[in-house]
Write a structure and sequence with these properties.
FAD/NAD(P)-binding domain; 2 domains; 5-stranded parallel β-sheet; single chain; oxidoreductase activity; NAD(P)/FAD-dependent oxidoreductase; EC 1.14.13.-; alpha/beta
């Protein structure tokens, strides 16, 4: 990038989903307007733009799955669908004046830290720029994962992932194979079952499914939430409080989840009368070990005569014939993969080169780890939203995002206090200490003890995705930056280490 005059910004945000738009709003509220939001697509929305499959909806109540600073009194249902959530994000973009900062069709191809200039060099599909601070808000549910199935390339029919739904392909009257039984699959199956000729579900592991307490939000409720905002806030607080009370069962006392398993079994029994099918759909692991799913229509759809269940994964494809790991053979015209995303091996990590000349993916080869879910050692002024160990099993990720936005705001304040052209680099020992605490607490959680193999775990069997505590605790722990956990970098003069225990102002004065 040398020899050219590129655009320079104070902050570059990658992604325009909830995280990226939230960061943009917070920057403007901090009085920072010198920033851009780099988006690879041609519109905002992130995962709620990409996932437009039939039946797509959120499994967190709408009034909790929205920004606290941008409440929406007009949610149509308790659990709103993808079109309404995407429309909400478009409104947030307009209300907070974010469009001048958006750079569409600007997929980030490479990020490289320049230690001499103390800034990031950014190569995008739409040009190059530099930034003092980079905020990665690509999210863990952004890059679909499709398993390497022998013969798949020669399948003569249609193949696509749930997050890349082909709306031009007509499923009506087709023989469709659904691969996977995660959150997307349990919404897709009942949505397409009535129109396809035959639907075959390949199930490696059955999920636990609970009733979905969904209903239309009445006009009276909407009016009340608009005219009396306190009622809207109380509703959100109640939804939050109930979920906070559930956390200990997931993180400390998984045996308490037995009652929830009973409710799930009873929910299945009401819809599935065939004992053999019920047995095939009953998990053999503790509820909560994998993500708990919500649906009133999944089990009834599976009991329909045009639906078949294969209790194994897809092993091989031979022409139009799909071979299950159990040896079963199925003819199909289309294959839909509901096989999740690159969560513990996020592709963005391969594109970020830090202070040591290594990529984030190389540094994370033994497992993702960052300080307070935000800062990886060796990557100065690079913050991740929804980073390692910030995921939730029972509540709204918007709460975690907003906590991390507090951390981002204080991070930028500390840089301002330290003076022009400084950078903060997370100390390796601080990252190790934080990660050690996380992994120690993780040992007794249901995700680690429940007897399942889930996407919460990486290739080494470590849980690098979930947060083993309440959202309230995470908010307290990310309220502000502790400069003792960082090295303060200045151009050419090397690193000035801030002394442990000093106040923020005193540390800034010493570093200066």
């Amino acid at each position: 990038m040398a020899g050219r005059e590129e655009q320079h910004v104070r902050v570059a945000v990658i992604g325009s989903g909830f995280g990226g738009l939230g960061a943009a709003v917070r920057l403007r509220r901090q009085g920072i307007t010198d920033f851009v939001v780099l988006e690879r697509a041609d519109s905002v929305g992130g995962t709620w733009r990409d996932n437009s499959y039939p039946g797509c909806a959120c499994d967190v109540p709408s009034h909790l799955y929205s920004f606290s600073f941008a409440p929406n009194p007009d949610w149509p249902r308790n659990f709103s669908g993808q079109p309404h959530i995407r429309a909400y994000l478009e409104r947030v973009t307009d209300i907070f004046g974010l469009r001048p900062h958006l750079r569409f069709n600007s997929e980030v191809r490479h990020l490289r830290w320049n230690g001499d200039a103390l800034h990031w060099e950014i190569e995008t599909a739409n040009g190059e720029l530099t930034a003092d601070v980079v905020v990665s808000a690509t999210g863990p549910l952004s890059d679909p994962k499709v398993p390497d199935i022998p013969g798949l390339d020669s399948f003569p029919g249609k193949v696509f992932h749930s997050a890349r739904w082909d709306h031009d392909y007509e499923l009506r009257g087709k023989r469709v194979a659904m691969i996977g039984t995660g959150a997307s699959a349990i919404q897709i199956v009942p949505a397409i079952q009535p129109e396809v000729e035959r639907l075959t579900l390949f199930q490696r592991t059955p999920p636990w499914v609970l009733p979905r307490a969904d209903r239309r939000i009445s006009a009276v409720e909407k009016w009340l939430h608009t005219k009396v905002p306190a009622t809207r806030a109380a509703r959100r607080q109640l939804l939050w409080g109930i979920r906070e009370l559930q956390v200990s069962a997931f993180t400390k006392r998984p045996d308490e989840l037995g009652l929830i398993e009973f409710l799930a079994r009873n929910h299945m029994k009401k819809a599935v009368k065939d004992p053999a099918l019920r047995a095939a759909l009953t998990p053999d692991y503790r509820i909560g070990c994998k993500r708990i799913l919500l649906s009133n229509t999944y089990y009834p759809a599976l009991a329909r005569p045009n639906v078949d269940l294969v209790t194994s994964g897809l092993k091989e494809v031979r022409g139009n014939t799909l071979i299950g790991a159990d040896g079963s053979e199925v003819e199909a015209d289309a294959i839909v993969f509901g096989t999740g995303f690159h969560v513990t091996d996020m592709p963005i990590a391969q594109r970020v080169t830090g202070a040591k000349g290594t990529t984030l993916a190389e540094e994370w080869k033994d497992g993702m780890a960052s300080l307070r879910g935000a800062s990886a050692a060796g990557f100065p002024n690079f913050l991740t939203l929804i980073g390692p160990n910030t995921g939730l099993g029972n509540s709204s990720m918007i709460l975690m995002i907003e906590a991390q936005l507090n951390y981002l705001a204080d991070y930028l304040r500390q840089l301002d206090l330290l003076g022009e052209k400084t950078a903060l680099s997370a100390r390796p020992e601080a990252v190790e200490e934080w990660n050690r605490m996380i992994q120690e607490r993780m040992k007794r959680t249901v995700w680690n003890t429940g007897g399942c193999d889930s996407w919460y775990l990486d290739a080494n069997g470590r849980n690098t995705t979930a947060w083993p505590g309440t959202t309230g605790e995470f908010k307290r722990l990310t309220r502000q930056v502790d400069l003792a956990e960082y090295e303060v970098l200045r151009p050419k003069t090397g690193t000035a280490a801030a002394p442990v225990g000093a106040s923020a102002d005193a540390r800034a004065e010493v570093a200066a």
